[in-house]
Amino acid sequence: MEKNAILAAVLSLAVLLGWQYFFVPQEPPKKKDVSTKAPLQQKLSSRQKGSITDRAIRVSPKKSHAPKTENLNTRKRSLPKNFKEILVKVDVGNAVYGLTNYGAGFVQMQLNDYKDEKGKFIDLAKGYYSDLKPLFFWGSGSGVLNRAVYKVYVNGQEVTESKTIKIDSKKGGQKVSFVLQGKAQEKVEKSLFFSAGSYRIPTTILIRNAKNLDALGVALGPSVGGSDGDTYGGVIEGPMSFVDKDIVYDNPEPDNDQPKYDKNVKWTSLQSKYFITALVPRTGSGGAQINLLKANKDRANDYAAIVPLRSENSRVLATMDLYAGPKEVHRMSKLDVMLEESLDYGIFSFVASPLISILRICNAVTMNWGLAIILLTIIIKLIFYPLTHFSMKNMKGMQKLQPKMAQIREIYKDDKTKMNQQLMSLYKENKVNPMMGCLPMLIQMPIFFGLYEGLLVAIEIRNAPFFWWITDLSKQDPYHVYTVLMGISMFIQQKMTPTAGDPSQAKMMMFMPVIFCAMFIFYPVPSGLVIYWFVNNVLSIGQQFFVNRSVQTPKLAQEDES
After folding, report:
1. 135 phi-psi bin (left φ>0, alpha ψ -120 to 50, beta other)
2. Is the pLDDT of residue 444 over 50?
3. In angstroms, what is the C-alpha Rg of the chain?
4. CB of 43 within 8 A of CB of 237?
5. Of the four listed, 134, 232, 346, 402, which is most buried by Cβ atoms within 10 Å?
6. Residue 72 to residue 94: CA distance in whole angstroms
7. What is the full DSSP assignment across 74-89?
8. How confident is the model at residue 422 (pLDDT cuts 50, 70, 90)?
9. Which of 48-57, 278-287, 387-396, 465-474 has the lowest mean pLDDT?
10. How far is CA 174 from CA 92, 124, 158, 202, 365, in A?
11. pLDDT at 50 over 60
């Protein structure tokens, strides 16, 4: 019966991996007056045409009208004449955020604690367009605001030269403001507050007396940096929103409806497997809108994720949080908007989430994620030890009954009903339960799948080394050493486990280690998961050895009567 359970586990694993591999979507980016004292309406009337942000905030979803490719990445950045660009870089310790006074948007979101495969720091703003940077306006008339030259203020003091601000936790946060002022009391202001060690940036948007700018939004786009293109296992990159208590993956395609949500939106974002830039509406803003900008063949598509602003009497006053950083649960949870749900563990999230939480505790003890996985394996084994021990003793009893079971099958081979009745009677007389061989494995299968999903997306495992050749526990073992060791340990475990089936079935089960090894080599399972399985097998072998040596095989009922 335990062999059937193992076979069922193999088939379950094959179905899960096969489904994710073949069916789950994968994601593979004349002189103008530039004086800030000119009226905003005058600027609107003379604005350039063709800005990708000059699209109305829609009342209902409409089909995409994505601009042609040559209008996006190949568009040269046209700066106003007599223009002096002021770049303000804010170093919060674990990140450096760079903003420009030309359009008041981000040109850098560098994460100092995370590097790509080439050893360069991850930059979430990498790949921005000249007319779409993170925190640019979106909507009819937004193009002129995104090409305007803003005055820059740091803590209320005007800044006229590019500078770097290093924030010290002892000195408190820093406020950076970008202001566009007209002659008739028109005003546009973006204020951002930066704190030491925080990826959360509280933001305030003020628009005053700008009658032609009633329907605007704030946008993220066109992509989020940090993606390595590794999306196996069902990982989906791109737009994501939290609407009506659920995660929504927004991946519009050309000529399809573009997603728009009018209410009950906690946040909208552009995200990759490990990183996210998200807008969290607080006051004066709400809803979400996703626009496809460019469909790419060799990488994820380019999008704009937009939060509409609410206007009252030609005035907008909106507050929101911008989160630009890694998908670290303890940081995202502080925003209290379920942003941590962006760390999607799939259908086994109810198991994966607590497992990864325990794994973090284990790492705090071992200071090595590989050792933490081993410690987690030991903890799980101890939790299930009583059940597993009872199952092994039960299998010893089942092994003793094999001759009698074979005799019953032979006598009643033409009467299946009678045969099953006699077998059940035999089990009852000798106090054994054939289902006990299945139960421990069936209970632990969700743990395996949950840990698999968790190790795929937990950022703590990204680039986490173990020893020697294992430099990234989220990646496949490059030499398949642990995969082979796992197969060998499965073979030894099979040989030590008491058999309760026919010889032909036992021979078939001996091929299971080969099947598993081939499956793990073909499908890139994280090396951390293979280490978990290998260590679990080793512990099971030790437990089986103890049972085989210390537990006496129960006598048959007939032997007791004699």
Report:
1. left
2. yes
3. 31
4. no
5. 134
6. 31
7. T----PPTT----EEE
8. confident
9. 48-57
10. 10, 21, 13, 11, 36
11. no
Tokens of 307: 């939060």
Question: What's this model's pTM, rounded to 2 decimal places?
Answer: 0.79
Per the listing, tokens 């305030």 go with 204
The angle formed by the CA atoms of residues 59, 62 and 65, to the nearest 5 degrees, is: 125
CA–CA gap between residue 144 and residue 45 (Å, rounded): 9
| Backbone CA torsion sign across 173, 107, 132, 37 | positive
CB 149 within 8 A of CB 101: yes
The residues spanned by each domain of the chain are 2-20+350-556, 35-49+87-232+311-344
Query: Dihedral of CA 210/213/218/221: which sign?
Result: negative
Q: What is the mean pLDDT of residues 109-121?
A: 92
Which residue did the predictor score with more confidence, 283 or 438?
Answer: 283
- Output the CA–CA distances (angstroms, integers) from residue 205 to 128, 155, 177, 187, 311, in the order listed: 21, 16, 10, 11, 11
What is the identity of the amino acid at 446?
P
Quote the pLDDT of residue 446: 85
Q: Which two tokens stand for residue 186?
A: 């028109």
In this structure, how many other beta carbons lie within 10 angstroms of the beta carbon of residue 282? 14
Residue 265's DSSP bridge partners are: 243
d(CA 277, CA 415): 66
Which residue stretches of 367-384 are H helix?
A: 369-383
